[in-house]
């Protein structure tokens, strides 16, 4: 069920680990357009939980780029790095429910034993540490071994049973449809790492609830993650928004634009003479 609200609330939540490109611009413009169609509001959220890659200058650049596109939002902007204690409390609730366990495996060790991949193409965790004796867990934690904390997906699904979520599309005003969630395909996902009390999956569901988000607009590449988010929402007693999946902006090779590939960013396009109207026209707005 979506959370009760006097009006729809949507959000655009980029990571300030680089400059925005046309794919981000499309997602932002799509979200603000959807908010207008629903008679609601679009919020900005900074998902900056990675302190090594996320920088204040990138966060300011995102704000500048969005203003250049003609977008605005209510203040203050939610900043995830300011909310670590809240995510840690959510993780502790899962730990108290015996759903979170420490894992000491290396990436290479996981890859060597994995049987298949998750929807993102990463090796599925083989469950090596799932049944470690409590005494060994405590000993290794006290010793300071590198650790991450995983959700026991089988236990979690046993608690929830079959889950569903609501989607609309391609327009947010379309008739809602119910879809079954399949979080089992993610395996025992990491929800915490040593030194970082959250993961994308954990923080996004906590923050969507905190901001009373009623509709989540996201790219089709994030469609599979919704299965896992619906599971976490149920386990934490949080409302589930309505979901809408939009198209991706692709490069000349038919691949998704990305910061890591050096896709042209809005600043470089602006320097090359593009206007706000040029960007909107290019993206169909």
N/C terminus separation: 31 Å
Which parts are unreliable, with pLDDT below 50 for 5 consecutive residues or more? Answer: 1-5
Order of helices and strands: EHEHEHEHHEHEEEHEHEHH
How many strands, which pairing sense, and closed or not: the largest β-sheet?
Answer: 3 strands, parallel
The CATH architecture comes to 3-Layer(aba) Sandwich
Q: What's the CATH topology label? A: Rossmann fold
Number of strands: 10
Radius of gyration: 20 Å
Query: What is the count of DSSP helices, taking H or I runs of 4+ residues?
Result: 10
CATH class: Alpha Beta
Keywords: Aminoacyl-tRNA synthetase, ATP-binding, Ligase, Metal-binding, Nucleotide-binding, Protein biosynthesis, Zinc
EC number: 6.1.1.-
Pfam families: tRNA-synt_1c
GO molecular function: ligase activity
Describe it for me?
By secondary structure, the chain is of the alpha/beta class. It has one domain (9-283): Rossmann fold. The protein contains ten helices and ten strands. The protein has helices spanning 22-38, 56-68, 84-96, 107-113, 134-143, 153-160, 200-210, 225-235, 266-271, 276-283, and strands at residues 9-12, 41-46, 78-79, 100-103, 148-151, 164-167, 177-180, 190-193, 215-219, 242-246. The strands form four sheets. Strands 1-2-3 form a three-stranded parallel sheet. A three-stranded antiparallel sheet has the order 4-5-8. Strand 9 (215-219), helix 8 and strand 10 form a beta-alpha-beta unit. Helix 7 (200-210) packs across helix 8 (225-235). The protein is globular and about 60 Å long. The relative contact order is 0.19. Mean pLDDT is 95; it is low at 1-5.
């Amino acid at each position: 069920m979506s959370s009760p609200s006097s009006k729809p609330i949507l959000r655009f939540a980029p990571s300030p680990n680089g400059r925005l490109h046309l794919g981000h611009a499309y997602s932002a413009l799509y979200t603000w357009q959807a908010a207008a169609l629903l008679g609601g509001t679009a919020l900005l959220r900074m998902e900056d939980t990675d302190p090594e890659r996320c920088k204040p200058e990138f966060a300011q650049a995102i704000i500048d780029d969005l203003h250049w596109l003609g977008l605005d939002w209510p203040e203050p902007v939610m900043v995830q790095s300011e909310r670590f204690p809240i995510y840690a409390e959510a993780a502790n609730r899962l730990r108290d429910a015996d759903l979170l366990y420490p894992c000491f495996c290396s990436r290479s060790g996981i890859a060597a034993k994995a049987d298949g991949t998750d929807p993102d193409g990463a090796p599925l965790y083989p469950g090596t540490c799932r049944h470690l004796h409590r005494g060994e867990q405590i000993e290794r934690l006290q010793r300071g071994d590198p650790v991450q904390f995983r959700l026991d997906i089988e236990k979690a699904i046993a608690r929830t049973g079959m889950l569903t979520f609501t989607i609309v599309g391609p327009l947010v005003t379309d008739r809602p449809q119910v879809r079954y969630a399949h979080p089992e395909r993610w395996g025992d996902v990491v929800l915490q790492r040593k030194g970082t009390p959250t993961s994308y999956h954990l923080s996004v569901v906590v923050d969507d609830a905190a901001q009373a988000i009623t509709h989540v607009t996201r790219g089709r590449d994030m469609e599979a993650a919704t299965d896992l988010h619906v599971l976490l929402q149920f386990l934490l007693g949080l409302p589930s928004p309505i979901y809408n999946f939009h198209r991706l902006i692709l490069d000349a090779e038919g691949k998704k634009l990305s910061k890591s590939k050096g896709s042209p960013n809005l600043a470089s396009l602006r320097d090359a003479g593009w206007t706000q109207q040029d960007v909107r026209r290019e993206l169909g707005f």
